[in-house]
Design a protein that fits this description.
heterodimer, A: alpha/beta, Rossmann fold, seven-stranded mixed β-sheet, 11 helices, B: alpha/beta, five-stranded parallel β-sheet
C-alpha cells in the first residue's frame, strides 16, 4: 500500500464511527498538541487511557476479562495502572500479537517484524490501515517538531541506507517511506538486497546501491535528508576520512565531497548498532560525520550538521526522536512513556535514575498498545511540551543461546554448545 | 603423571593424558584384582572413616572457603551448601552403604570371595571396571554416589566431575588420602581412584570412550552430550556397559483431603532445596480437587516459601529477572492465577491453572525460561479426578516446558488413603522411578535403586561357580 491507499482505506474504517476512535483520529492530526503544557497533555493522556479501556473492553472479550482480573476499572484507572498492563515484547514473537487484536480489527493492513535473535523468532505486529494512517500522521508531526521545521511537500530528496524490500518488514523503514511519500518527497534506497544460496543454505545480504548513493550525493535538491543506521554514516565518513589527496580532489571536482545536504539538510540515524561492536560512541560518530557532511539553515548560512536519532521499535506506532545537542529523546504528545524499576518493575516517578522503559500509545486502535521492550532509559525534566526527555542507556542483558543440559544436581555447563 | 595443560575460562586444567591411559590399563586391572580381594567390610570401614574425617573438618570450619566458592560457582545459597556438606558423612556411612549392597547382592561377601548361594552353587561378584563416571551438575552428592559404589565394589574408578562441582568433589575424595596414611585398604582404594576434568573436546575423553579398555561408562546428563558419548562407546572394541542416568524431574501430587499446612511446608521445602535442580525436585504439581481448595493450599505454600526461601537466598541476574517478570506477566495475561514473591533473593512463583497448563501456552515466547532456568517456580495444575494424574505424568516429558527431560523420576505424594490405594499400581505404570511422600522427595533411602537401576550390580559381573555336575544340582 502506498500512503494514499492507506489514507483512503483508513477513512473507510468502521471504527471511525466509535467516538473514542473518532476522537483519536482528530487528535492525531492536531499539531497544536506540541504547544500544550506537560500537565495538560498528561491529563489528556489519562482521560484517553480511561476511554481506551472502555473501548477495548467493549471490543474484546480478552481485554474485558483482563481488566477485571487485574482490578482495573475504566472509570477511575490511573496512568500508573499501565505498569500492570504492560506486556513484555517477548510475547509478541511469532503469532503472539494475534491474541491482543480486537475482534473486528480492520483487515488488509501490514505486518512489521523485528530482526529476531539466535534463539527467538521475531516480534511480528499487525498494523491496520487506520493504524498505519495514524502512524504516518503522528510520526511526521513528531519528526517535524524535533527537526525544528516544516518539511515542504515535494521539496528535497532523501536517501535511506536500506533496501526497498525492508519497507514491508521494518517499522522504521516503513514510517520514513510512508511519511516522505505522503509529503511527496522522493526517497532513494542506498542498499540492494541480494538473495542467493550456497550448499543448500539460503542467504540474503545487503550491498550498496552505488547509483542511488551517488545520485543523492551529487543532487542539488534541498533539503537532503539522509536516513541511516549509525554504522552507515560512520563507515561512509570513515571512507571519506581515508581518501588520499588526489581522490579527495577528484570528488571535490565532481561536487561529491564534502557532501552538501543543503538548506534544511539533516542526518537521521536509527536502528541501533546493528551488530557492529567496534563503533565509536554516538558523539564520536557525529563528530567524524560533521567533517564530511555539511548543512545550512533556511537562510543559507552553514550550520553544524543536524543529527537526529529515532528510537522506533516494531511494537510502537510512533517513535521517540532526539536531535543531537538540542534535545534528548522525546515521544509524541499522546504517547505515555513511563519508567519501571529494573528490579521490581514498579512504576518509577523519579528522574535521573535508570528505569525499564514502557510505552503506551492511546492512538493505536487494533490493540491496547502498552508494552516494555526491555531497554533501560533515563528521564530528565524538560521545558518542552512533554515535560521530560529521555536518554537511551542500553538494552537489558538477557543471556541466550546456551544449550544447557539438565542433570541431577544442576546443569552440565561444560558440555554445551551455542545453538 | 602425564597431563595435558589447558585453559578454559578462568580455569587452568590439567587433563590426564591419553598416553598415560594407554600405558596403565594393565595396571588398572591389577589394582582392581587386588582391591576386589580385600574383605568388603574393610572397604566399608574406609569409607566410613572418610566420612568421619570430613565431619571433623566440617566442624573445624576447614571447608568454609570451599563453601563460599561453591556458592559462587553454583548459584546456590551458602546454607544449601552447608546442608549438602552435612549429607557427605551420611552418604559415606558404612551401615548405609552396607544396606545398599545387601539389597543389591545375594551376599555381600561375594564381593571378595565365592559364596555359596545354593547347594554346590556359588556367586562371586567381580568388578566390571574400570568404571568411567562422567558426572555433572552443581551438587556434590550425585557424583559421589556412583563413585562410592564403584570403589566399594572394587573397581578402578575414573571420575570426571563437572567444572562447578569439581572442587567440592575433590575435597570430599581427598579424605581418602588422609585415611590411607594409616590404612593399607584405603591405600588400595586411593590407587583405584583417578579424578580429572576433561574438556568436551578432549582427545583423552574421546580415547577413553571410543578406544579405552573400560568396562563401564556411567554417564549422568542429557542431550546432546549423551548421544555423542553413546556413539563413541558403541564403537569401543572393549564393549563397555553404557549406563545412562538421564535428565529427570519430579512431580508433586496432592489431593484436597491431604492439602494441610504440613504438606504445604513439604512442597515449599522441596521447591527451595537445590532450587529444583535435582532429578527428584518437584517442578510441577497436580492438585486433585477444587480451584478454591487449591488456592487455599497455594496460600499456605506461599507462606512457607517466604519463610524457607528467606533462609536459602539466591541471586537473580538482570537477564533472569527480566525473563521471570515477563513470564509472570504473560501467565497473568493468559488467565492464570499467579502468586509470587517480590523479593529478589527469594523470587518464588506459584501458578495455579485449571485443567490445562498455562505455562505451556507461553513457554514458546520465553525459550530461555526452560526447565534448567526455572528456579523456585511451580505450576499447580488443578484437576477434578485422580485419573487425570496419570495422564499428566505421562504427558510431562512431551511438553515444551519440560523439553530435555526424559521422564518423571519422582512422584511426591500427599494423598488420602483411599486415593493412594487407587493410584499406586497405575503410577508405577506411568514410567516413573520413585513414589515417595511429598515431604521429603529429595531424600534417598540407602536401598533405593538409581533411576530404575541397581548401580552396585551394574558395576560388577556375577561369576558363577558350580562344584557338582548339573544333574546333581538340579536333582
Amino acid at each position: 500500500m502506498n500512503a494514499k491507499e492507506i489514507f483512503d482505506k483508513a477513512s473507510q474504517s468502521k471504527l471511525l464511527k466509535d467516538p473514542y476512535v473518532e476522537k483519536i483520529w482528530n487528535l492525531i492530526g492536531d499539531k497544536s498538541l506540541f504547544q500544550k503544557s506537560p500537565d495538560y497533555l498528561r491529563s489528556l493522556r489519562k482521560s484517553l487511557f480511561r476511554d481506551a479501556l472502555k473501548f477495548f473492553s467493549s471490543n474484546s472479550e480478552y481485554y474485558a476479562n483482563l481488566f477485571e482480573r487485574l482490578n482495573i476499572n475504566p472509570k477511575n484507572a490511573e496512568l500508573e495502572d499501565l505498569a500492570k498492563l504492560a506486556i513484555p515484547s517477548d510475547i509478541l514473537r511469532g503469532e503472539g500479537h494475534k491474541q491482543f487484536l480486537i475482534k473486528n480489527v480492520d483487515e488488509n493492513g501490514e505486518y512489521f517484524m523485528s530482526s529476531g535473535t539466535t534463539n527467538n523468532v521475531p516480534v511480528k505486529i499487525y498494523r491496520s490501515p487506520l493504524d498505519l494512517a495514524i502512524m504516518i500522521k503522528g510520526n511526521t508531526d513528531l519528526f517535524e517538531y524535533v527537526y525544528g521545521d516544516y518539511l515542504e511537500p515535494g521539496k528535497g530528496l532523501a536517501l535511506f541506507m536500506a533496501a526497498p524490500e525492508l519497507r514491508y518488514r521494518l517499522n522504521f523503514v516503513a514510517f520514513v517511506h510512508l511519511a516522505l511519500e505522503a509529503k511527496n518527497i522522493p526517497l532513494l534506497y542506498g542498499m540492494n538486497l541480494v538473495e542467493g544460496s550456497e550448499s543448500g543454505q539460503a542467504w540474503k545480504k545487503l550491498v550498496p546501491n552505488k547509483d542511488n548513493i551517488t545520485k543523492f550525493l551529487r543532487s542539488r535538491e534541498e533539503p537532503k535528508l539522509f536516513f541511516t543506521a549509525p554504522a552507515g554514516i560512520y563507515l561512509l565518513s570513515k571512507q571519506f576520512e581515508e581518501l588520499n589527496f588526489v581522490k579527495r580532489l577528484m570528488y571535490k571536482l565532481a561536487s561529491v565531497y564534502p557532501v552538501q545536504l543543503g538548506r534544511g539538510g539533516v542526518i537521521v540515524t536509527g536502528g541501533g548498532t546493528k551488530g557492529f561492536t567496534d563503533l565509536p560512541s554516538y558523539e564520536g560518530i557525529v563528530e567524524i560525520a560533521k567533517k564530511h557532511f555539511k548543512a545550512k539553515d533556511r537562510s543559507g548560512r552553514e550550520v553544524s550538521t543536524p543529527f537526529m536519532d529515532v528510537l522506533g521499535m516494531t511494537e510502537t506506532l510512533t517513535a521517540m526522536i532526539d536531535r543531537f545537542g538540542v534535545m534528548d529523546k522525546i515521544p509524541h504528545p499522546l504517547s505515555e512513556v513511563f519508567l519501571l524499576d529494573p528490579k521490581t518493575f514498579e512504576w518509577r516517578n523519579e528522574d535521573n535514575v535508570e528505569g525499564i522503559v514502557g510505552i503506551y500509545n492511546p492512538f493505536t486502535t487494533s490493540w491496547l498498545e502498552v508494552f516494555y521492550p526491555g531497554d533501560l532509559m533515563i528521564s530528565h525534566p524538560s521545558d518542552r511540551f512533554y515535560g521530560k526527555e529521555y536518554v537511551y542507556v542500553r538494552r537489558l542483558k538477557v543471556e541466550e543461546g546456551w544449550e544447557l543440559q539438565r542433570a541431577c544436581g544442576g546443569t552440565l555447563e561444560e558440555l554445551m554448545g551455542r545453538s | 603423571m602425564e597431563v595435558v595443560d589447558k585453559k578454559v575460562n578462568e580455569y587452568r586444567i590439567f587433563e590426564v593424558s591419553e598416553s598415560y591411559f594407554r600405558k596403565n590399563f594393565l595396571k588398572f586391572k591389577e589394582i582392581q584384582d587386588e582391591l576386589s580381594s580385600t574383605p568388603i567390610s574393610d572397604r566399608l570401614k574406609v569409607l566410613d572413616e572418610m566420612g568421619q574425617v570430613w565431619d571433623s573438618g566440617l566442624k573445624r570450619g576447614e571447608f568454609d572457603g570451599l563453601k563460599e566458592s561453591l556458592a559462587k560457582s553454583t548459584g546456590y545459597s551458602e546454607n544449601l551448601i552447608d546442608l549438602e556438606f552435612s549429607f557427605v558423612p551420611i552418604l559415606l556411612d558404612m551401615d548405609n552403604i552396607r544396606r545398599n549392597l545387601e539389597f543389591s547382592f545375594r551376599s555381600i561377601d561375594g564381593l571378595h570371595k565365592f559364596v555359596e548361594v545354593d547347594e554346590g552353587e556359588y556367586y562371586r561378584y567381580v568388578p566390571s571396571g574400570p568404571v568411567f563416571i562422567i558426572s555433572s551438575g552443581n551438587s556434590l552428592i550425585p557424583p559421589l554416589i556412583p563413585t562410592t559404589l564403584s570403589l566399594v565394589t572394587g573397581n578402578m574408578t575414573i571420575l570426571k566431575p563437572s567444572l562447578t562441582n569439581y572442587f567440592g568433589v575433590v575435597k570430599v575424595l581427598e579424605t581418602l588420602k588422609k585415611v590411607s596414611e594409616k590404612s593399607s585398604v584405603a591405600e588400595k582404594m586411593l590407587k583405584a581412584l583417578l579424578v580429572s576434568y576433561y574438556t568436551h573436546d578432549s582427545l583423552t575423553l574421546k580415547f577413553l570412550l571410543g578406544k579405552g579398555e573400560i568396562g563401564v561408562v556411567n554417564f549422568w546428563g542429557g542431550e546432546p552430550a549423551r548421544t555423542e558419548v553413546g556413539k563413541l562407546v558403541s564403537e569401543n572394541p572393549f564393549h563397555p556397559k553404557f549406563i545412562v542416568n538421564g535428565p529427570l524431574t519430579g512431580v508433586a501430587v496432592i489431593d484436597e483431603e491431604s492439602a494441610d499446612d504440613e504438606i504445604a511446608w513439604g512442597l515449599a521445602y522441596n521447591i527451595i532445596l537445590y532450587d529444583q535442580q535435582l532429578c527428584s525436585s518437584p517442578t510441577s504439581a497436580i492438585f486433585v480437587g477444587s480451584l478454591e481448595k487449591a488456592s487455599e493450599f497455594t496460600a499456605k505454600v506461599a507462606e512457607h516459601l517466604d519463610e524457607i526461601g528467606g533462609e536459602y537466598k539466591m541471586l537473580l541476574s538482570e537477564g533472569e529477572n527480566i525473563i521471570l517478570h515477563g513470564v509472570r506477566r504473560s501467565l497473568q495475561l493468559n488467565g492464570a492465577n499467579v502468586f509470587y514473591s517480590k523479593s529478589l533473593e527469594n523470587p518464588w512463583t506459584i501458578v495455579v491453572s485449571k485443567e490445562n497448563s498455562v505455562l505451556d501456552n507461553i513457554i514458546k515466547y520465553f525459550p530461555q525460561y526452560n526447565i534448567y532456568h526455572r528456579k523456585r517456580f511451580i505450576e499447580i495444575l488443578v484437576v477434578d479426578s485422580i485419573e487425570k494424574v496419570f495422564y499428566e505424568i505421562k504427558k510431562l516429558p512431551l511438553r515444551e516446558a519440560f523439553k530435555g527431560v526424559d521422564r518423571v523420576q519422582t512422584v511426591g505424594i500427599a494423598l488420602s488413603q483411599e486415593n493412594l490405594e487407587n493410584v499406586l499400581e497405575k503410577l508405577a505404570k506411568t514410567g516413573v522411578y520413585r513414589i515417595v511422600p511429598l515431604a521429603d522427595m529429595f531424600m534417598r533411602s540407602a536401598i533405593e535403586p538409581y533411576d530404575g537401576t541397581i548401580l552396585a550390580s551394574a558395576f560388577t559381573n556375577t561369576i558363577y561357580y558350580r562344584n557338582k555336575k548339573a544333574v546333581d544340582v538340579i536333582l
